[in-house]
# Entry
Amino acid sequence: MVDQKTFDPYDMFKKFSDQWEKQANDFIKGSSNNPEFVSYSRLTSDTQARYLEFFKKNQEFFANQWNVPTKADLSNVAKLAIQTEEKLDSLEEQLWKLQDSVDSSNKEMESITEVSRDIIKLVKQLKKEQTISKKELEEVKQLKSNLQEVKSELAEIHSLKEEILILKELMGKNIDTKAKQEQNLAVTSK
Amino acid sequence: MATETLNNNTIPSFDFEKEMTRWNEFSNAINGPELSEGHTPRHAIWKKNKATLWHYPTVEKKYDVPVFIVYSLINRPTILDFAPGTSVIGGLVNSGYDVYLLDWGIAGYEDKDITLGDYVVDYIKKGVGRALRHSGADEVSVVGYCLGGTLAAMYAAIADEPIKNLVCAAVPIDYSVPAMPEKWAEGLKEGAFNIDRFIDVYGLIPPVYIEAMFRSITSPIYYSPYVTLLTRANDKRFVEKWRRMNQWTKGHVPLTGEAFRQISNDLMKENKLVKGEFTIRGNKVDLGKIKSNLLVVISKNDNLIPQGQSLPLMDLVSSEDKTHQLVEAGHASLALTGKLAGILNSWLCDRSNH
# Structure
C-alpha cells in the first residue's frame, strides 16, 4: 500500500489527450482518404488560386497607377543583386584558377631552376675534368716526344752497333790478312 | 484507517507554488523569445544568395576527409546542432572530422524560379568545391538528410568532384511508395490536385502551407506536445529541450515554386529519379553512376519517409561498398537525439583516411 503511486491529474490528462489525438487523427485520415475529398480539395485550392490571381492582378494594376513598386519589381531588383553576386563568385573562381596556374608555373620554374643548377654543376665539373685532361694530354705529348728521343737515340745506338760490328768484321779480316801475311813471310823466310 | 492511508498516498495535495511555476514555465515556453541557435563554433566561408556554407573546425583533426552536410529545403538545419551533448555536428567535430554545412537560408520571392537542379549545380556542387579548397582535402564525404539526401544523391550522380563517401539519412528516393493516404497519392498521380496553378499564383510556397502539408500527412491534430509540456513544465531541462524542438518544428521555411513543382510533378507524380528520367540542365541524373561508398540510414518509426522510399537507393547505385542501417528512431529524433553522429562516425571512421 505504501508503494501506491500518487494520483497525478496531469498524467491522466496527458494519457487521455494522447489517446484522443490519435483517434481524431485516425478519423481525419480515414474520412479524407477518398476521391471525393481529393476533388473537394482541388475545388477549394482552385477557388483560392482564382481569388489570389484576381487580387494580384488588381494589386499590380493599382500599384502601376500610383507608381508604387510591387513585389515583382522588388524581386527583379533583388535578382540583379543576386546576378552580381554570382558574377563576383565566378570571378573569384577564375582568380583561383589563375592563382593555381601561377602556382603550378612557379613550381615548374623552381624545378627548372633546380635542373639548371644541376647542369651548371655538371658543366663546371666537366670543365675541371677538361683542364685535367688537357694537362694529362700535355704530359702524354711530353712523354711521346721523350719516347721519340729515346727511340732516335736507340736507333743511333743500333747504327753504332752495326758500325762496330762492321768494324769488328773489318778488324777480323785485317787480323786474318796479317796472319796470312806473317805465315807467308815465315814460309818465304824459310 | 486503511482507506485513509490509501487516500493520503494517492490523492496529491495542492501545491500552489508548484502549480504557479508550472503554468508560468508553460506560458514562457510558448510565448517566450526564441532560444539561441548554433552551439558548435563555426564560421562562414562562403555566401551565395540566401545560402551560407558554414565550417565547423574540428578540435583535434583525426580524419583527412571532411564531411559536407546537405540539409532539407523545407526546414532549418538547426536540428543538426540542436543542443550541446546531442548535436550531430558537435559529435562529428569532437570525433575529429572537419564539418561543412550548407545552410540554404530562407528563400525570398525573387528565388521562386530556383529549381532542384539549380540547387544541385549552383549551390551543392560549388559548395563542395569550396569546401575542398578550404580544407585542402583530396576527397569529401557528402551527408544528406531528408530531402537534402535526395539532393545529395542527385549531386553524387553528376559530380566531377571526388566524393569518397555518400550518406543519405531519412531520404525519399522512390516516391512510388506513398507516405500520404492512398487516395491522395492516387489523386496526385492522376493530376487531381492542380498544383501547377497553385505554384503559379504563389511563386514561393509559404511556410504555413509547408507545415500544413506535413501535418496533414503525419498528424493533422497536433496538441499532445503542449500537454506533455504542461505535464513536465517543472523540469527545466525538458522545458528547454521542448522549446528548442518547438522552435525547430515551427521553423519551416518557404520553398521555391519551381523546386516544389519538380518535387510534386517529377518526383512524387512521375517518380523520375528512380526511372532515370530526372534531368538537371538537360542532363539525365543516373543514380547508377554513383560509385562512392554508400550508407543509407533509415528510421524505423518515420511517419514521413517510409522505409520503402529509402531502400531502393541501395539497388540503384553502382557502389561496391554499400550498406543500410535501420535505426530505432523517428524522422526528427534521428538527429535530435544525436544518434546520427554515432552512426556516421562508426561508418565513416574506416573510410576517411585516419
Observations:
- The interface with chain A takes residues 2, 5-6, 9-12, 48-49, 108-110, 112, 122, 126, 133, 181-184, 186-187, 192-194, 197-198, 200-202, 219-224, 227-228, 230-231 of chain B (CB under 8 Å).
- The mean pLDDT of chain B is 90.
